[in-house]
Amino acid sequence: MSVAVTIETIEKRFENFPALRGVSLDIQPGELVALLGPSGSGKTTLLRLIAGLEEADRGRVLFGETDTRELSLRDRRIGFVFQQYALFKTMNVAENIGFGLKSRPRRERPSNEDIRKRVGDLLDLVQLPGLEKRYPSQLSGGQRQRVALARALAIEPRVLLLDEPFGALDAKVRKDLRAWLRELHGRTGHTTVFVTHDQEEALELADRVAILNEGRIEQVGSADDVYDHPATPFICEFLGEVN
Ligand code: ADP
User: Fold this and answer.
1) Three-class SS of residue 69?
2) ipTM score of complex
3) Distance (Å, rounded) from C-alpha 106 to C-alpha 43?
4) pLDDT tens digit sequence for 178-210
5) How remote is the CA of residue 16 from the centroid of ligand 1, in Å?
6) Domains in the chain, please, with CATH?
7) What is the number of alpha carbons within 13 Å of residue 65 lying toward its C-beta?
8) Spacing, Cα 95 to ligand 1 middle (Å)
9) Distance (Å) from CA 34 to ligand 1 centroid
């Protein structure tokens, strides 16, 4: 099968600051790739470029064979989960999850009955059955992020982009959700890019980890690759904390 996402020599400046300095990465269908690096290394910028929320100064992003500049934001079909504020506070869980489906153009919009069924299936999938009528304020932080994931999955995303999705949660919940997401990914097999600055999280969760530093990817590999053969002094130092 062809590559799901190809990132080709992306450069991106903000004012005069080079946030990304020639980043290339291939992501295979169904792969879970973590973008790992210290704050300011360019992880979120790269995620936003994949989503089409930023434009590259140089280079391009392909989905399969298609240059993403040819796709509208809707046609990119990105499922996004952010660290915080991921849910609409004034909508209940079912409305939050169904939002992406309801806002489709009329001819592509599923019936209300189909949306209701799909929301129920997604709540089963994220192991929160029966919570349709709850409001975000009535959920724990971990439950909220699981609902946010259900909402991202509702549109049957081509690519799932998760930006520090567990960053605001306490350590125990984070650890539980990490294992849960790994298991869920094993079942659903979405092509996923997961941004984190937490080494343990990245190395436990991802099939491959791309380690960023100052706008460049310094190494891409499995947890074993990067532990056993750290490619640069920066990576030795950065991973030192978990070794
Ligand atoms: P990370 O996600 O790794 O913390 P970011 O991608 O958010 O890093 O940011 C990379 C660099 O680009 C940072 O130095 C940040 O300050 C800068 N940057 C990101 N977005 C903007 C923006 N909209 N305007 C100006 N600078 C930005």
Assistant:
1) helix
2) 0.97
3) 36
4) 998 999 999 999 999 999 999 999 999 999 999
5) 12
6) 1-77+158-243 (3.40.50.300), 89-156 (no CATH)
7) 2
8) 32
9) 18
